[in-house]
Amino acid sequence: MALMIPTVLLVLTGMELPETPPVPTPKPEQSIKIPDSTRSPVIREQAEPEQHPEPLPDIVAATDTEADLASCEAELRKLDVTFEKLAPLNGENGCGITAPYAITEIASGVILKPATQLRCETALALAQWVGTVVIPATSALPGEASLQAINHGSTYVCRRHNNLATGKMSEHAIGNAIDVANFEFTGRKPIGISPRADDGNIEEAFQRAVRAGACLHFATVLGPGTNTSHADHLHFDIAKRNRGYRLCQ
User: How confident is the model over 154-188, as pLDDT tens digits?
Assistant: First the structure.
């Protein structure tokens, strides 16, 4: 009502009104500052950086001469090992085996499975271990048990230690290693490698015996208790170290 009074006064005094009434100028908007603690974060899509795997470090495989291989093969035959020489394997950064061997029987009537790709020297160490340690330990098991097969987890694999993303290359990368997972028998159930400390049974005794005896034939013996990566197998390799040092854990 109060707004109408000035307009009436103008009409009474004879003043002309504009055809288009003035439009009030809007007040500038005042920006309201929001404290950082309550301000909503601004989400911007950022391209994720490309992930490039760290390149494999170099590893140098031993060179097996024809004379070395002939001597090794002769020893394998003496131990009744059934084997076949395969074509060379070539991987990145030195991975590979110049003369890989597939072993089907590691002793007479004892199957090694699945298929293997090993240096002859590694196969020979394995055969000596089976003949002098595993078969005698089997004869001490109750009943009429006899060793029928050995199952492994891996032989040649171009990878680092413990399958990690960084670090040194594994002896598996040059055919120097094998991971033994379990043993099969006729006359009794299989014995698999597992943490058995203080089980106090014959399976623990067998595992302890074959593991300890392996240190006579391999430069490296790792297994349950070494670390989590070896909780379910025995790792054997023939790595060369200064002064013939052996790592038995």
Answer: 999 998 887 776 678 999 999 999 999 999 999 99
Task: Read off the DSSP letter of residue 229.
Answer: G
In degrees and rounded to multiples of 5, residue 120 shows phi and psi of -60, -40
Decide: 89 and 119 in contact? Cβ < 8 Å: no
Specify the DSSP class assigned to residue 131.
I
Choose among 39, 88, 26: nearest CA to 61.
88
pTM: 0.77
CA 51 to chain centre: 19
Exposure string for 152-162, b = 16+ CB within 10 A, e = fewer: bbbbbbbbbee
Residue 135: exposure state from Cβ atoms within 10 A (0-12, 13-18, ≥19): middle
Other residues' Cβ atoms within 10 Å of the Cβ of residue 224: 18
Cα–Cα distance for residue pair 20/213, rounded to 1 Å: 109
Nearest CA to 152 out of 124, 126, 189 is that of 126
Task: Indicate if the pLDDT at residue 9 is higher than 80.
Answer: no
Burial of residue 235, with CB atoms counted within 10 A of its CB: 0-12 exposed, 13-18 middle, 19 or more buried: buried
Cis link prior to 18 (omega < 30° from 0)? no
| Residue 116 structure tokens | 């293997």
Positive or negative, the CA dihedral 168, 116, 53, 163 is negative
The amino acid that residue 99 corresponds to is: A
Q: How far is CA 151 from CA 111, 119, 130, in A?
A: 8, 18, 13
